[in-house]
């Protein structure tokens, strides 16, 4: 079981067998970013069991918790964009390779061929590997991924701001009500 949280992302795996939970905050009244939410949690759909995979190349991933970010799955890559880190807006994009449950952060997706049929070259330090798409008709152009990531981020930021305004209004009302008694 993972701790309850908000401001996280949940992303369905390409095979529909796992949900990846990443980031977020633990307590809505104490907006501290905790290390517990830095880690990835994976829910097996069929077993309904949680796992905490070990992620390699940690220096390429976020070094503090990421909250109110967006997440998109592209082939075997979870792409986390923007959000909050250390109480500041983040302009970082992180890419996690989840292929074959060998989780590791990668620095770049060096070249993406946006044609319906083609290869994707992934660079991680000095290692490069070509991945052949198993479903060439199902590939999504990069501009669509970027647009959806940014749109999701904007929505999450506005939802988070509305939640904070609502919570602050309730606190002020509670303080006024306590003063009247």
UniProtKB/TrEMBL annotation:
Q: Which InterPro entries match?
A: Gal_Oxase/kelch_b-propeller, Kelch-typ_b-propeller
Membrane-spanning parts: 140-167
> What keywords are annotated for this sequence in UniProt?
Membrane, Transmembrane, Transmembrane helix
**Highest taxon of the source?**
Eukaryota
What name does this protein carry? 7596_t:CDS:1
């Amino acid at each position: 079981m993972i701790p309850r949280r908000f401001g996280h992302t949940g992303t369905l795996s390409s095979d529909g067998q796992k949900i990846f939970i990443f980031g977020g905050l633990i307590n809505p009244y104490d907006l501290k970013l905790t290390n517990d939410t830095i880690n990835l949690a994976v829910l097996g759909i069929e077993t309904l069991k949680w796992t905490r995979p070990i992620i390699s190349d940690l220096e390429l991933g976020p070094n503090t918790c990421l909250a109110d970010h967006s997440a998109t799955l592209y082939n075997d890559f979870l792409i986390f964009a923007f959000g909050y880190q250390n109480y500041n807006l983040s302009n970082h994009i992180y890419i996690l390779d989840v292929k074959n449950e060998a989780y590791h952060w990668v620095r770049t997706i060096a070249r993406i061929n946006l044609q319906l049929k083609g290869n994707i070259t992934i660079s991680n330090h000095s290692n490069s590997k070509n991945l052949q798409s198993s479903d060439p008709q199902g590939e999504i152009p990069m501009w669509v991924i970027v647009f959806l990531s940014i749109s999701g981020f904007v929505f999450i930021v506005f939802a988070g701001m509305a939640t904070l305004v609502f919570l602050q209004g309730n606190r002020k009302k509670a303080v006024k009500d306590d003063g009247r008694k």
